[in-house]
Structures are given as C-alpha cells and as structure tokens.
Amino acid sequence: MNARSDIHDRLAASLRQARKAKGLSLDAVARLSGVSRSMVSQIERGESSPTVATLWNLTQALQVDFAGLLEERSAPGIEVIRAGAAPVIAGRGEGVRIRILSPAEAAGEHEVYDLRFEPEGRLVSAAHGPGCREHLTVLDGEVTVVSGEESQRLGTGDTARYFADRPHRIEAGAGPARAILIVQDS
Predict the structure, then answer these.
(1) pTM
(2) Regarding the domain delimited by 3-70, which CATH topology (the fold level of the hierarchy) does it fall under?
(3) Which of 27, 82, 111, 163 has the fewest C-beta atoms under 10 angstroms from its C-beta?
C-alpha cells in the first residue's frame, strides 16, 4: 500500500468515525459544513481527495481537530459526547436550540433531541413518514404540542406521545422551556 492510499484510508476512517461519534447523518454533516452529501460520502469511502478548504469545513462542522485527523487511534469502550461537542441543528425553528443526542446509525429510526426554547420559541415540522410518532418530555417550563388538529399544554415532567405523520409543532410559552424529543419511525 502506498503512502497516499494509507493517508486516504486513515482520513476516510477518521471523518466517518467523527461523524458517527457525533450522531450525525451524511445529510446533517452536509448541512452543517456546506459540503455536498455526495462529496462527504465520497471522502468517507476514500474515493475523493478533499481540498484543504473542504477538510476545514468538515472538521469545523464535526468539531474535530484538523491536525489530528490522520492520527491512528483505537475506539474507546465507552463513547462519550461532551455537552459542548454534541451536534446542533441550525435553522430549524424560531427561538429553539436543537442538540442531536442519538447516534448517526439511528437516524430515520429512533432519533433523540435536546430542545431548548427561548420564550415564545417554536419548532414547526412538516409531516414525517407514515406511522411516525414523537415522544416529548418536558424537563423545565411549559410547552404546547399541536399534532394535526389536536393541541395539549404540557408542564415540567409531562410527556406527550403523538403522531408526527401530519404537520405538528411545539411552542414554548412566555418563559423558556427545555424538553427531550424522541422521534420514532414505524
């Protein structure tokens, strides 16, 4: 194996490992980095030689050390994502911060999010796939959940389970709120 091939293989493995450790899908990395999904996939498979600018965008999105990408390291027995390193979805909702807590391999099946709402913040979602349900537990504050034509007000400690295969939304009241959201496809 030549040095160039070895570098591509280590780079591909490091980026893939970093993405999975953050619980991100290829689409999420593409959105966060501005690098196309197909390019991210090609780089992770070792089929493309990324530019320095592309690598920089990917390392910033994945919050990994640019210089450490080519280091060989073994996977830990306990995978830990520190609070400040969990990926955040930007541009969805108004006045809400969405942290991804689930691993990348769970995307589309069982996703877990930490939602932090500013006062009057809201997360509006289009219908997901048939049979999809969401489970929302309020950790602090109050929110209103609307699924289709139904609406429920929830306070600290309350849990709502509702269909997400129709338009739905979560809205905070006059104060801040925090919740855990689990999205479960059928």
Answers:
(1) 0.60
(2) 434 Repressor (Amino-terminal Domain) (1.10.260)
(3) 82
